[in-house]
C-alpha cells in the first residue's frame, strides 16, 4: 500500500483534494429506482462493512487545497499525457467521507478524475452511492454518472440510468425511481417493494439536501398508479413541505368526508399542517396544527373551525341552529433550568357535541391547566390552575368549578428526627363556580415515618401525622347532595393520626418456583373529626379497593378524614417460576370504635367490619395476562365489585376481554358512586405475513334497577368496530366499519366507515 499520492515529476506539484459532501450527496440523490428495466436493480445486495483498507494520513494542507488520504494496489504515471492511474481497490478518504473504486484516473492537466468499476461513495452522514462510472472535477464534484444506485442512511433507495450536474450545482437524474421499502425479507431473501415512485426526471438540490421529482407516479403493489405532483423528499430522512395523502371516511352525521392536508416545514424546529375537510352532508371544515421545538421546550396548537347546523342537546331535532363551531387544543412544556418548569394545556370546544360529531374525541370532559413546578432533591413546589368544560348531557357547566390557584409545597428534611424521616406540606386551593358553591381551603401537614427491620425479618413502619385545616365556603345551598355541602362560612379542624404497619415476608420454594408470602397488619388511630362541617370537594368517589386498603386515609382527597381506630389485616402472595408469575392479595379492616361512620352504605367501609377486597394477577410469558379485582360483602358474600381484564395472544394475534360489575347498592343521589355493569371485547388476528382483521365492542349491561337516572335497559351496545388492515415495513392500509348506538344532538347514531392509507419513509402520514 503506497503512501499519499506523490506529485508527478513532469508537472507542478498538485494534491488530490478531499471529496466534498456535495459530491456524495449528488451521487446519493441518484439512488433512484429506475423506471425502465435497464436501470440498476434495487434489490442488489449492498456491503455493510466500512470501506477498507484505511489509507495513511495525508500530507498537511497547502493553502485552500485540502489533501485526502490515498491508497491503491498499483499507481502508474503516463508522463506524455499527464495521466495518473490507480488500480486495484483504490480508496480515497477524508474525515468521514470515502470513495472506493477498481480504477481511478486523474488527468493533471484538465483536472478531470474518473472513477470506474464497482464505485462506492460514502458521505459523512452514512449515505452510499454505487455506480459503474462517475466523472469528478479536480474539486471532486460529480459530473456525469451512469447506472446509479444510492442507499440513503435513513432507509430509502434511489436509482437512475444517467445523471449530470448543471451550472447551478444541481444534479439532474433521468429515468429514475425511489422506494422506502426493504428489498429483502427477514430471512435475507429478495422481495418486491410494496410501493415505489417513478419519475421522468429528478432534481437534486445540493445545498438544501432536497430531491424533487418531476412527472412522478406512485406505484402500489405494481397495480395502482397515482400521480404525485410536486413530490419532494429529504436526503436526511427529515420532513419536507408538500401535500399529504388524503383521508377518506363516512359517517351518519356528515356523510362522506375527504380530508386533504398540506404540510409546511417552516424551519427545522417548526412546522404547520393545514387540512381542509369536505363533507357531502355538512359544511366544509378547516383544521390546522402548529408545532415548535425551542431551546426551553416544545409546544403545539391544534384548531378546528366550521359553520354548521347544530341540534340542541335537549331540543327538538327539527329545530337546528347554524353557528360557528370549533375546538382548540394546545399544550406544551418549558424547562427553564433543571429545577423550574412550566406546563400548560388548553382544551375548549364551542359546544358539547362538536368533538363527537366530527369524530375528534369522545372525552366527557375537557381539562385546561397551567402549572409552574420547582423540583429538587428534597423540595417540591407546584403553583397551578385548572378549568374543566363538561361534555356530559344533564350536567350544568355552572356547577363545574374553576380551581385557581392551587398551591402545593412539600419539603423532606435531610436530617432524621428520632431516627425517622420528616416531611412537611403546605396546600391551598380556591374553587369558584358560576352557579354553585365556592370553597377556599388551606392546610399544613407534617408527617414523621420510621422504618425498621427486626431480627426475625419483619418490616415495621411507624407513622405520625398532624394537620391543621382552614376552610371558607359560600352559597352552600346550591350543592344538591347534603353530605357534600358542609357549613357555610369559616370552618377549621385539627387532625392527628398515628399508625403502625408490620409486614413479614416469608420466602420459600414451591411448584418448581419461588414464592413470597407476606402477612401484613396495620393499626391506625385518628381522633374524632368534625367532617360534616367541612365542604367535600375532592373526596366524594370513595370506595374500598385493594389499592387503598392500607392507606392512612381511605378517602381519595383531603376534605374527608377517616377517623376512629381501625385494625387492618391482609396477605400478599407472589409466585415466580420460568415463564410464570402470579401475584395476589386479600384483606379486610375492622373499626374498633362504635361511632357512626360518615362513609355511605355500599362503599364497603360503612360498618365496623369492612368488606373483603383483593386482587389476583396471572401472567404467562407475554402471551397470557389475567387481572381480577373484587370486593365481597362481609355478610352476604355478594360480589360488590367484580373487574376482570384478560389478554391472550401475541402482538399480531390476540384477544382482549374486560368485564366490570359494580353492585354497591348505593342511593342514586350519590352520582359519583353509581352502579354499573359493562363488557368490553377486542381482538386482532394476523395472517399471510402482513394482513390482519380486527374488531372491538363495548356493551352497557346496566339495568334500570342499578341506574334509574340514565334509563339503561340491560343491554345497550355503545360502540362496535370491525376492520381489516395490511401493514409491512413501508405501507399501512386499513378499512374500518364502526357503529355508534347513542345519539346526542347532531352527533347521530349509525354506521361510519374509514379508509386509512400511509406510506412510510416518504413523509406521508
UniProtKB/TrEMBL annotation:
Region (Disordered) location: 40-64
Ranges of biased composition (kind: Pro residues): 47-61
Alphabetized UniProt keyword annotations: Cell outer membrane, Membrane, Signal
Entry annotated with the keyword Repeat: no
Location of the LptD C-terminal domain: 324-691
Compartment(s) of residence: Cell outer membrane
Main location: membrane
Highest taxon, organism lineage: Bacteria
Domain Organic solvent tolerance-like N-terminal residue range list: 72-140
Signal peptide: 1-39
InterPro entries associated with the record: LipoPS_assembly_LptD (IPR020889), LptD (IPR050218), LptD_C (IPR007543), OstA-like_N (IPR005653)
Keyword Transport in record: no
Biological role: Involved in the assembly of lipopolysaccharide (LPS) at the surface of the outer membrane.
Quaternary structure, from the entry: Component of the lipopolysaccharide transport and assembly complex.
HAMAP family the UniProt entry points to: LPS_assembly_LptD
Family: Belongs to the LptD family.
PANTHER family: LPS-ASSEMBLY PROTEIN, LPS-ASSEMBLY PROTEIN LPTD
Name listed for the protein in its UniProt record: LPS-assembly protein LptD
Amino acid at each position: 500500500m503506497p503512501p499519499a499520492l506523490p506529485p508527478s515529476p513532469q508537472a507542478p506539484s498538485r494534491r488530490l483534494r478531499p471529496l466534498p459532501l456535495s459530491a456524495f450527496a449528488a451521487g446519493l440523490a441518484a439512488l433512484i429506482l429506475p423506471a425502465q428495466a435497464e436501470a440498476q436493480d434495487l434489490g442488489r445486495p449492498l456491503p455493510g462493512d466500512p470501506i477498507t483498507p484505511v489509507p495513511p494520513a495525508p500530507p498537511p494542507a497547502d493553502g485552500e487545497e485540502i489533501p485526502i488520504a490515498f491508497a491503491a494496489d498499483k499507481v502508474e504515471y503516463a508522463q506524455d499525457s499527464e495521466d495518473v492511474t490507480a488500480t486495484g481497490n483504490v480508496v480515497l478518504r477524508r474525515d468521514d467521507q470515502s470513495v472506493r473504486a477498481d480504477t481511478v484516473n486523474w488527468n493533471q492537466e484538465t483536472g478531470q478524475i474518473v472513477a470506474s468499476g464497482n464505485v462506492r461513495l460514502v458521505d459523512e452522514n452514512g449515505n452510499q452511492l454505487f455506480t459503474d462510472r462517475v466523472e469528478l472535477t479536480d474539486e471532486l464534484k460529480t459530473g456525469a454518472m451512469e447506472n446509479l444506485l444510492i442507499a440513503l442512511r435513513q432507509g430509502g433507495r434511489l436509482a437512475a440510468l444517467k445523471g449530470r450536474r448543471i451550472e447551478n450545482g444541481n444534479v439532474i437524474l433521468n429515468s429514475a425511481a425511489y422506494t422506502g421499502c426493504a428489498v429483502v425479507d427477514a430471512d435475507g431473501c429478495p422481495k418486491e417493494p410494496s410501493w415505489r415512485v417513478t419519475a421522468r426526471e429528478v432534481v437534486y438540490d445540493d445545498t438544501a439536501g432536497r430531491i424533487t421529482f418531476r412527472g412522478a407516479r406512485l406505484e402500489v403493489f405494481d397495480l395502482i398508479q397515482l400521480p404525485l405532483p410536486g413530490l419532494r423528499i429529504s436526503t436526511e430522512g427529515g420532513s419536507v413541505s408538500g401535500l399529504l395523502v388524503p383521508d377518506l371516511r363516512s359517517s351518519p352525521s356528515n356523510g362522506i368526508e375527504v380530508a386533504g392536508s398540506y404540510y409546511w416545514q417552516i424551519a427545522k424546529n417548526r412546522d404547520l399542517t393545514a387540512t381542509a375537510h369536505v363533507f357531502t352532508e355538512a359544511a366544509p371544515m378547516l383544521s390546522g396544527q402548529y408545532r415548535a421545538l425551542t431551546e426551553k421546550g416544545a409546544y403545539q396548537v391544534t384548531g378546528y373551525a366550521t359553520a354548521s347546523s347544530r341540534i340542541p342537546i335537549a331540543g327538538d331535532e327539527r329545530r337546528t341552529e347554524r353557528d360557528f363551531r370549533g375546538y382548540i387544543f394546545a399544550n406544551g412544556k418549558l424547562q427553564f433550568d433543571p429545577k423550574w418548569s412550566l406546563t400548560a394545556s388548553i382544551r375548549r370546544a364551542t359546544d358539547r357535541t362538536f368533538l363527537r360529531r366530527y369524530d375528534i374525541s369522545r372525552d366527557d370532559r375537557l381539562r385546561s391547566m397551567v402549572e409552574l413546578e420547582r423540583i429538587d432533591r428534597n423540595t417540591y413546589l407546584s403553583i397551578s390552575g385548572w378549568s374543566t368544560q363538561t361534555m356530559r348531557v344533564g350536567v350544568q357547566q355552572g356547577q363545574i368549578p374553576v380551581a385557581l390557584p392551587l398551591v402545593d409545597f412539600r419539603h423532606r428534611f435531610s436530617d432524621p428526627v428520632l431516627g425517622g424521616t420528616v416531611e412537611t406540606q403546605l396546600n391551598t386551593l380556591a374553587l369558584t363556580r358560576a352557579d354553585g358553591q365556592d370553597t377556599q381551603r388551606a392546610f399544613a401537614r407534617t408527617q414523621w415515618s420510621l422504618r425498621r427491620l427486626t431480627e426475625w425479618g419483619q418490616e415495621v413502619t411507624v407513622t405520625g401525622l398532624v394537620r391543621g385545616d382552614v376552610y371558607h365556603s359560600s352559597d352552600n345551598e346550591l350543592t344538591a347532595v347534603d353530605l357534600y355541602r358542609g357549613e357555610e362560612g369559616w370552618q377549621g379542624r385539627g387532625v392527628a393520626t398515628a399508625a403502625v404497619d408490620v409486614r413479614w415476608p416469608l420466602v420459600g420454594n414451591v411448584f418448581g418456583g419461588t414464592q413470597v408470602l407476606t402477612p401484613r397488619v396495620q393499626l391506625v388511630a385518628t381522633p374524632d373529626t368534625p367532617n360534616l362541617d367541612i365542604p367535600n370537594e375532592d373526596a366524594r368517589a370513595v370506595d374500598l379497593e385493594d389499592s387503598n386498603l392500607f392507606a392512612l386515609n381511605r378517602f381519595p382527597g383531603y376534605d374527608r378524614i377517616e377517623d376512629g381506630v381501625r385494625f387492618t389485616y391482609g396477605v400478599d402472595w407472589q409466585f415466580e417460576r420460568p415463564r410464570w408469575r402470579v401475584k395476589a392479595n386479600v384483606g379486610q379492616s375492622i373499626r374498633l370504635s362504635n361511632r357512626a361512620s360518615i362513609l355511605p352504605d355500599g362503599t364497603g367501609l360503612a360498618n365496623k367490619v369492612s368488606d373483603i377486597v383483593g386482587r389476583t394477577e396471572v401472567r404467562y410469558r407475554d402471551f397470557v395476562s389475567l387481572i381480577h379485582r373484587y370486593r365481597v360483602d362481609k355478610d352476604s358474600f355478594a360480589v360488590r365489585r367484580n373487574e376482570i381484564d384478560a389478554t391472550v395472544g401475541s402482538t399480531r394475534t390476540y384477544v382482549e376481554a374486560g368485564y366490570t360489575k359494580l353492585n354497591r347498592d348505593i342511593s342514586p343521589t350519590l352520582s359519583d358512586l353509581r352502579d354499573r355493569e359493562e363488557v368490553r371485547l377486542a381482538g386482532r388476528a394476523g395472517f399471510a405475513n402482513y394482513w390482519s382483521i380486527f374488531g372491538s365492542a363495548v356493551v352497557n349491561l346496566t339495568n334500570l334497577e342499578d341506574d334509574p337516572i340514565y334509563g339503561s335497559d340491560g343491554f345497550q351496545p355503545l360502540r362496535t368496530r370491525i376492520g381489516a388492515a395490511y401493514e409491512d415495513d413501508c405501507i399501512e392500509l386499513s378499512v374500518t366499519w364502526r357503529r355508534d348506538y347513542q345519539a346526542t344532538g347532531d352527533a347521530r347514531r349509525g354506521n361510519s366507515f374509514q379508509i386509512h392509507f400511509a406510506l412510510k419513509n416518504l413523509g406521508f402520514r
